[in-house]
Design brief:
With 393 residues, this protein is α/β, with parallel strands linked by helices. The protein contains 14 helices and 17 strands. It folds into two domains: 259 residues, Alpha-Beta Barrel (TIM Barrel), CATH 3.20.20; 59 residues, Arc Repressor Mutant, subunit A. Helix content is 37%, strand content 22%. The protein has a nine-stranded mixed beta sheet, sandwiched between helices. Strands 12-13-14 form a three-stranded antiparallel beta sheet. A three-stranded antiparallel beta sheet has the order 15-17-16.
Amino acid sequence: MASVYVHFPYCLAKCPYCDFTSYAAKREDIDHRGYADAVLSELGRRARTLTAGDRPFVVDSVFFGGGTPSLWDPTELGRVLRGIFSVFEGRLGRDVEVTVECNPTSLDEDRARALADQGVGRLSIGTQSLDAAALKFLGRLHDPDGALAAVRAALGVPGLRVSTDLIFGLPEQSPEDASAQARTLADLGLRHVSAYQLTIEPGTRFGELAKRGRLPLADDGRVAEAFLAVDETLVASGLHHYEISNFAVPGEEARHNLGYWRGEPYLGLGCGAVGALEDDDGAYATRYRNSTSPERYVKVNQGDGRDAAATEEVERLSPETRLKERIMLGLRLARGLDLAAAAAPLGVEPFTRERERDLRDLENRGRIVRDGTVLRIPREAWLFTDDTAARLF
């Protein structure tokens, strides 16, 4: 299976921790139709190659991310979605999952219903915190009441699946506070919650402050306590911890993200979007990134988009590189990674002498559990997942 990601690069404000392609803009200053036209132009250009290939590109999910795609005029977003369905007619999975990321400041019941009317079936709401001081620290425009109101509005629309985000590991956050916020969200009846550790990325406002020693940070022990508190609370509320940062009622997992973690191909559309598409042999792949300038992206994708290729960064991915990425992503899943199955279509040896040596060491240290060819990180070692995966490169 495969997926489509559409990036909408505008937000009402740029958050200090965000390193995604996003630009602050008022809703009325955005060229909603012009941006949709550019995305549809890119779609047509890329789809000509995908639909002509020998390997079927079957779309199982569409994800509108950002930025804040809930700022986008729902009619224009819907036009892009219908364009995707039209281009891949006959190559659509059963009951395609369509998700739109939303911020509480741009989501009420009318907007949620308008998105549902356009064919959107799932909303991912960036609540991030239910603490006023934490929201201010994170540069968010909403308050706790606004966050809860947005979630309730979305839950009030029949047929909409709703997920929400929670950030933990904030300065001065206690495990009890992290647990209480997770419990509040679960008690709303949410069937999917994502919980992310605050990370400080280079090039962000937080990154600059941290470099100058001017950003308060939680110590590793405090972060671990918050992670375990959130885990215990959400699991006790009936959500299973299916990926390091994600919890869901069984059957409500995010199919789009599961595709990423399994190493499946994805088509990226929009300013700053990243895509990774397989060659016909299924072993090699090409990863590309579009221009991060909205003005340039729209300009080169006007008309036939003939000059659009000049705005891309392109990387050729070898089978070994792809296997390393599958290890990094697949080990995030609670059920683990079947390394032999991941390597087979790539034509790469999964258990090299070096990997076998490192696996034995990781097993002895309790960092990994091995069951035949399936590798799994135990719950108590999840906080070390990135380091564990890197050892297997």
